[in-house]
Design goal:
The protein is α+β, with helices and mostly antiparallel strands and 115 residues long. It is 34% helix and 30% strand. It has two domains: 49 residues, Single Sheet (Ubiquitin Ligase Nedd4, Chain: W); 36 residues, Helicase, Ruva Protein, domain 3 (Orthogonal Bundle). The protein is rod-shaped, with a radius of gyration of 25 Å. It starts with 11 loop residues before the first helix and ends with a helix.
């Protein structure tokens, strides 16, 4: 807690001055349209994001404020993998793609499931 804050907040200008004295710089990134955090199984999307960057001792820390929306990520199947499954099994491209999706992209498992 910062000294002098008491239980009731602090003047923003005074807080900014104190942060500057401690070597902490804070700035907003203007006109942010969207922030996406990608993980292997989902995307976390902020369409109403406000982003601030705090620099302390040469390290930037980003703060995102907004309403997150989680979206499941669809497995991307490379066309080369689809062609290989088609060549090995003789099935249609759609059937090969479906087998690859069911096998989470594992070529051997997809081919075995169609054989």
């Amino acid at each position: 807690m910062f000294p002098g804050m008491g239980g009731r907040g602090m003047n923003p200008a005074k807080l900014k001055q104190m942060m500057k004295q401690m070597g902490i710089n804070l700035r907003d990134i203007e006109d942010v349209e969207q922030v996406i955090i990608r993980t292997p199984d989902k995307d976390i999307v902020f369409n109403d994001a406000k982003v601030s960057v705090m620099n302390a001792q040469g390290v930037d820390t980003y703060q995102i404020v907004g309403t997150p929306e989680e979206l499941a990520r669809e497995l991307e199947i490379p066309e080369d993998d689809v062609r290989l499954v088609v060549e090995q099994t003789g099935v249609s491209e759609n059937a090969a793609r479906e087998a690859l999706k069911n096998a989470n992209g594992d070529l051997a498992e997809a081919i075995l499931s169609l054989s």
